[in-house]
Amino acid sequence: MPPARPFHRPARRYLAVVAAVTMAAGLLTGCSDSDGPEGSVDAFLAGWRSGDLTPVGFIDPTGARISAEQVTDELRALAGELVDTPPELHRSGDAEITQDTATSRFRVTWTLPGDTRWEYDRELRLRLSGDDWQVIWSPEVVHEQLTKGDRLGLRRTVATRAAVLDAAGEPIVTPRPVVRVGVQPSEVTDVRKLSADLTAAFRAVKPPITPPVDLSDLPKRIAEAKPDAFVEVVTLRRAAYDQIRSRIYDLPGTKYQSDELDLAPTREFARALLGSVDPAQADDLKAHPDRYVAGDLVGHGGLQGRYDVRLRGVPGVSVITRRPGPDGTLVPTDTELFRREPQPGESLKTTLDVRTQNAADAALRAEKRNSALVAVRISDRAVLAVANGPGAAGMNLAFTAQVPPGSTFKMVSTLGLLDREAITLDGRVDCPKTFTVEGRSFKNSNDFELGSVPFRTVFARSCNTAFAALAPQLGPDGLAETGRTLGLEGTWDLGVEAFTGKVSTGGSATEQAAAAFGQGTTQVSPLAMAAATAAVARGRWEQPNLLLDPAPQQRAEPGPQLRAESVEPLRTMMRAVVTTGTGKALADVPGDPVHGKTGTAEYDDNPANTHAWFVGWQGDVAFAVFVEKGGSSTDSAVPVTERFL
Fold it and tell me: Which one, of 272, 494, 485, lies nearest residue 381 by Cα?
């Protein structure tokens, strides 16, 4: 057999030569000059944005060849913090050609945080090599001030947060002194005794800190902290700290830091309505990664939350350069390539009156149950106070509670009966101990009965059985129709969430009887009842005002003018509630005469479980007071009203 031919080695040499030639060709790849240098320019701009520069050939300023992969890596490195948001790139006209070189201008547009646009023009130089235009690459292609090793970086400047203003145009929330109470682990001698002593001191603060300071985890926090750390326990307003300074200052391990925080006049001041401003939480950062960064202050709840974008303004942003330091960490340089100044926020102007709000908060301060008080000026519909208790509770029950109104709704029922001429001020009405409708027995508070008495007495003494008997005179929809004339169930635009009520309609005879004195399926909020009461005092319902700037754009239309023949007797009866009826504890309140109506509302199937109400007005101020699970109104809502007035 003849020996085999040694063909395999030459073949390997041949393939290696072909591969080398192919690789060299790859380094020289460019766009043909058949379309001029513009083809290479467009390919480079498209590749910069997409991250694929393989169709483009590159050389450095000395003429040495560079691979597309190397340029891609340098572009990504230069982009730094902007690497995930490549710029928009547009060629500006045709290139200028001089012999074998060309220059093409293009526009670079980066989108920075806050939808800020950073735009500038650059030049791209090219050199003709054979039939191909090669891009001359250097960091200056990205920006004229960049050199090798630079990285683009961002620097944010926080904008000045605007204030929520009161009716006088003064900021409600302003910088106020606070003291941060903390402990240093290395100096704590007895952590359990320290916790007990601090807890006792915090409980002595007046008004009480709500919710109370919980130190149950303090031993664990101290054990996990560094020996010289400042473990914060609580931040107190300076006035609260001064009350207990002598009790806590010398406790072993305690440390104190003075500071200022943006705070309202008091801890309770319209807290649920205003909301709070706190460091950005994880949920904030997740929901709006383009808006917030760690450490930002963010509005939560109430007006601060709803109008956070308006109030916080637009942070400033700068594009800077960074370079690796000796340890490889990027260090900012003094080079700033772009700056947009921060835009301060825009304030909110409210109708809140500081004196009235303080009175409302003080009136609820001693109430340990959930409670609310809304005050509305009758003449111009301004919401003067929105208070929620206890303390700085976060729920805005004043605007959003959906609860039965109890006997305060006899104000609405009576207006409807007067409109239909079913009753008169002094017409006699029976007030028995009980009244039965379709097998259901209705009774009065404490089982009282009055017999046959003038209707004004029925109203002043709040006789449920008389209203249950009169319910058919209203018809299935009469109560709801009358309620709507007082703004209930309306679509209001106050600039913040509010429940305007839902009035029983079209129910059975039993439901109609219950609804006539505020039970059944009727539900209201304190705001809705305060506005309805103001309508009775004014003679016409008009939507309350809370925000003056920005003013709501879709205010509800005013209601019809109330019939004088109906509203005048109703006002007389509401005055009698205070002079001779269930609200007579208010008869000696200083100032103008008080008109009103008490209310006790069952909220489940147990008659012993009741909410307490009082609605009324004095002078130019209408108001509604609500105490959740408050029992008898004379024991809870009326005393709150007395403290307020």
Answer: 494
Beta bridge partners of 100: none
One-letter amino acid at 44 equals F
DSSP letters, 428-473, are EEEE-SEEEETTEEEE-GGG---EEEEHHHHHHHT-HHHHHHHGGG
Cβ neighbors of 459 (< 8 A, separation 6 or more) are 410, 414, 573, 574, 576, 577, 581, 597
Q: How many CB atoms lie within 10 A of CB 221?
A: 16
Its pTM stands at 0.79
226 and 185 Cβ atoms separated by less than 8 Å: yes
Contact 179, 236 (CB under 8 A): yes
Is the model more confident about 334 or about 459? 459
pLDDT value at residue 7: 36
Q: Provide the mean pLDDT of the chain.
A: 91
| Residues 6 or more apart in contact with residue 265 via CB below 8 angstroms | 172, 354, 358
Q: What is the DSSP letter of 185?
A: G
Helix/strand/coil (H, E, C) string of 94-110? CCEEECCEEEEEEEEEE
Distance CA 154, CA 332 (A): 10
135-174 pLDDT tens trace: 999 999 999 999 999 999 999 999 999 999 999 999 998 8
Q: In which element (H, E) is residue 246 found? A: helix 238-248
For residue 3, pLDDT beyond 70: no
User: How far apart are alpha carbons 439 and 509 in whole angstroms?
Assistant: 11
**Which of 33, 131, 124 has its CA nearest to residue 71?**
124
Running DSSP on this structure, what letter comes out for residue 201? Answer: H
What's the CA gap between 301 and 282, in Å, rounded? 16
Q: Report the b/e string of 187-219 with b at 16+ CB within 10 A.
A: ebeebeebbebbbebbeebebbbeeebebeebe
Spatial contact of 433 and 443, defined as CB atoms under 8 Å apart: yes
390 preceded by cis ω (within 30°)? yes
Instruction: Judge residue 599's burial from the number of C-beta atoms within 10 Å of its C-beta, 0-12 exposed, 13-18 middle, 19 or more buried.
Output: buried
Residue 393 has pLDDT above 80, yes or no: no
406 conformational bin, left if phi > 0, alpha if psi -120 to 50, beta if neither = left
Burial class (CB in 10 A: 0-12, 13-18, 19+), 548: middle
pLDDT tens column, 359-376: 999 999 888 899 999 999
The interaxial angle of helices 475-485 and 410-419, nearest 10 deg, is 110
Cα distance between residue 97 and residue 125, in whole Å = 10
CB 534 within 8 Å of CB 378: yes
Nearest to 474 by CA among 398, 524, 389, 414: 414
Going by C-alpha positions, the residue among 473, 456, 438, 410 that lies closest to residue 568 is 456
